[in-house]
Design brief:
5 domains; 8-stranded antiparallel beta sheet; mainly beta; Thrombin, subunit H; single chain; globular; Immunoglobulin-like
């Protein structure tokens, strides 16, 4: 396995005295660094343990944890630079790990501090993290989530898949200029916070199962990993469960890396205490303070699209539990933010409140949110516990099923009340066996008063009102009777390169009353266009997406669309502060470029790029999400005149044409203005499709040679020549003033050349001379 390294860097600024940047533009050279090595895991033993775990009696495990005691004082190697800067480095190695997770038992970043996490070549940077990430108990954990995007309030460290080593560095600096150079990559601590940072690693988690991919070569999966009979939460079957879905979250157990499901619960007082119900067997032996709760992880429609992973809460406390009915009631470390739109589910503790239909909302196999329906009558059961009514039996699932990872998921009766949480059972896509849920009724009343920790009633009905049920609610709903909110305006991809706009609008009812009518006024560049009328039924807390009338005859340039809510239920809205949205957009000339990818059996091996070559190798598009297998993806762009290439990579170097067990192969196609210009599936590591837009002489204006990376921040540059008949070739390097710098001779299609370290930062022209002509490529070098 190719090793990847993670760095945590801490810049501690002692003073802001002026100094020369040249004295600090120093990087560490290769040398011996203190290394923490975990033992090798016994993979066969771990897989055997996993295979005998009850299918839903224990949640999914994908990592093995090693105890550690690593901190700034007892581990690592310190280096003092010429100007007084100090660098602390620690390498962590876990042989053959697919991922490495770190558990911090001490984690404190002082005010002004900034922390980034990244791999060795800095191709994946995560962060930055500030004092806002500090928790009351000073705990922290990296999670098994692939980095996708940074959010404004990001508070989670995320590990990088595919690595077996990690480096941790700390740098103390005597000046501000070096900080400016490093600010995008490391942890910065100003002089007034000197020596206040506390970093201590208590566990190193060796990931031995791949939870990131959808490969059929893996038995344990995450996105796309659940059985084919499962139904996405935004399919038509789930249209009546759109409130309840927002109560359900997936649990990431950071310390021993196991996955479960659970849901938020309302209490009788309705005071928004963030109570969370899950299964006790998920909690047993775990430190819930390091758990991560992921809300709204779902496909945006009925198709299998990977969901948003940014709506997370770190940490909780266990406040009530029972092994008899297998319930655990947690209190989250913080209240979910309003923009998560979390629903606090209602419940019933009545013995008689099992019904002739049941629903479970869950994350089977750690997949995006699913929903399952059972239409036979559920019934109370002891499920072998000798405790009457400790469980609710669901005889079989009429639609969908449950799987490993569904543990702790709420069981709703037909009145949309929680009556239990998933304990275990043998249901699967290929059978109609029973599942068993810990009974809410038993969890409410069965334990003695002395054992108050083991009674739900002490927490969900603290004033002992003897309530038998509680309704669910959103706490981010306005107190106004009528309050319609304009949430977002989007522009459809279908309007690329057109002088028209079809607005797509997201509208949410955040008031108390249902909305049955509203009107919208549209303006372009402050000129009134038209009024849009809507009639329907939008319940409180729900939202809709509208595609409204097309706006035509727009001139080339930048425009502003303004939408204002004019009336709600034939009256003025009670809250006018969220009734207006502005949307700036541009109309441009160009060509519509479409990349069409049909993945093969191993979609996770594929990556796409679209790059402009006549403008410093500008990356127009780079796919960062994992592609599902056997799925069609289409990406469209409006591009101005210039020179481009589309590239597809396959990390297993076997292309898309291979047919296994009769399955269909994949393909990669590129269209310009809906005309197919090239397609490819038969390649090894990569395939490149070059094209020019409005180039009368492509060979003259568009170079076929590709250089990577560009801009160049390291010493080695890769040159990719498209045709072996052009070899051997000579590369002449000129600066932007035309002065000759150096030359190279290359004899292979893919060649690596070394750039001298003393070359100045700037723009350079690489003139590639063949026997039949030459090509010019712009390269930006940053030293």
């Amino acid at each position: 396995m190719k090793k990847q390294l993670i760095f945590l860097l801490f810049i501690l600024l002692f003073s802001i005295d002026s100094f020369s940047f040249t004295n600090n533009n120093k990087r560490l050279t290769t040398r011996l660094i203190d290394t923490y090595n975990t033992a090798e895991i016994d993979l066969l033993k771990l897989e055997k343990e996993d295979s005998i775990d009850n299918r839903k009696g224990r949640p999914f495990r994908f990592g093995y944890d090693f105890d550690a005691d690593l901190n700034l004082n007892n581990s690592g190697t310190w280096t003092t630079l010429d100007n007084g800067d100090r660098i602390w480095q620690l390498a962590i190695n876990s042989p053959k790990a697919l991922t490495i997770n770190l558990i911090f038992d001490k984690f404190y970043i002082p005010d002004g501090g900034l922390l980034y996490l990244y791999n060795k070549d800095r191709s994946n940077i995560i962060g930055g993290y500030t004092s806002a990430n500090n928790s009351i108990d000073s705990l922290f954990a990296t999670t098994a989530e692939e980095f996708e995007e940074e959010t404004e309030d990001a508070v989670r460290l995320v590990d990088l898949p595919g690595m077996e080593s990690a480096w941790i560095e700390a740098l103390t600096s005597a000046g501000i200029e070096l900080v400016e150079d490093f600010l995008e990559k490391e942890y910065y601590e100003p002089y007034y916070s000197k020596n206040q940072a506390k970093i201590s690693i208590s566990k190193v988690i060796h990931g031995y199962k791949d939870i990131f991919t959808k490969s059929i070569k893996r038995k344990e999966k995450s996105f796309g990993g659940s059985g084919s009979c499962n139904v996405n939460i935004n399919c038509d079957e789930a249209k009546d469960w759109q409130k309840e879905k927002r109560a359900v979250a997936m649990i990431l157990l950071s310390n021993n890396t196991r996955l479960c499901s659970g849901c938020m619960l309302n209490n009788v007082k309705g005071d928004q205490i963030p109570y969370f119900l899950t299964a006790f067997h998920c909690v047993e032996g775990e430190d819930v303070k390091t758990w991560i709760f992921m809300f709204n992880y779902e496909s945006y429609n009925c198709d299998n699209n990977d969901g948003n992973t940014s709506n997370t809460i770190l940490g909780s406390d266990l406040i009530s539990y029972s092994d008899k009915s297998d319930f655990a009631l947690l209190k989250l470390a913080e209240t979910p933010p309003d923009d998560y739109n979390v629903y606090y589910a209602g419940w019933s503790n009545l013995k008689s409140d099992t019904t002739d239909s049941s629903v479970v909302i869950h994350h089977p196999s750690g997949d995006i949110k699913k929903i399952s329906f059972s239409y036979p009558y559920s019934r109370l059961s002891d499920w072998g516990t000798s405790m009457n009514y400790s469980h609710v039996e669901v005889p079989y699932w009429s639609i969908g099923t449950t799987e490993m990872g569904s543990s702790g998921a709420p069981l709703f009766n037909k009145h949309h009340k929680v009556i239990g949480q998933l304990h275990g059972g043998d249901a699967a896509c290929y059978n109609q066996y029973s599942d068993y849920f810990g009974s809410f009724y038993y969890s409410w009343v069965a334990e003695s008063v002395i054992k108050s920790m083991k009674k739900l009633s002490n927490w969900l009905d603290p004033d002992s009102t003897n309530a038998t049920a509680c309704g669910g609610r959103f706490f981010n709903i306005s107190t106004d009777s009528s309050d319609l909110k304009l949430v977002q305006i989007n522009r459809s991809n279908s309007e690329l390169c057109k002088n028209s706009l079809i607005p797509e609008i997201k509208i949410k009812n955040v008031g108390q009353k249902a909305v049955t009518q509203f009107t919208l006024n549209y303006f372009i560049d402050n000129n009134f266009l038209y009024k849009y009328d809507w009639i329907g039924n939008l319940e409180s807390s729900l939202e809709i997406n509208l595609t409204t009338d097309e706006i035509t005859n727009l001139t080339i340039g930048i425009h502003k669309l303004k939408i204002i809510i004019n009336s709600v239920n034939n009256y003025i809205d009670d809250n006018r502060t969220n009734d207006t949205l502005n949307y700036n957009f541009s109309v441009a000339e160009g060509a519509i470029i479409k990349m069409e990818l049909m993945t093969d059996n191993y979609g996770e091996e594929t990556k796409l790029f679209l790059i402009r070559t006549d403008n410093g190798s500008e990356i127009i598009y780079e796919s960062n999400d994992t592609f599902a297998s056997n799925y069609l993806y289409v990406k469209e762009f409006c591009l101005p005149n210039g020179c481009y290439y589309a590239k597809i990579e396959d990390k297993e170097k076997d292309g898309l044409c291979t047919v296994i067990n009769g399955n269909k192969p994949g393909y990669f196609k590129v269209y310009v203005n809906n005309q197919l210009i090239s397609e490819n599936c038969d390649f090894e590591k990569e395939a490149i499709i070059r094209f020019g837009l409005d180039c009368n002489d492509y060979k003259k204006y568009c170079s076929n040679a590709i250089v990577f990376p560009n801009p160049l921040t390291e010493s080695n540059l890769t040159i990719n020549i498209d045709n072996k008949d052009k070899l051997p070739a000579v590369i002449e390097v000129y600066n932007y003033l035309g002065a000759f710098i150096m030359s190279y001779k290359i004899t292979e299609l893919i060649s690596e050349i070394k750039i001298p370290k003393n070359i100045n930062t700037g723009l350079y022209i690489f003139n590639i001379k063949y026997s039949g002509g030459n090509e010019r490529v712009k390269v930006i070098i940053i030293n």
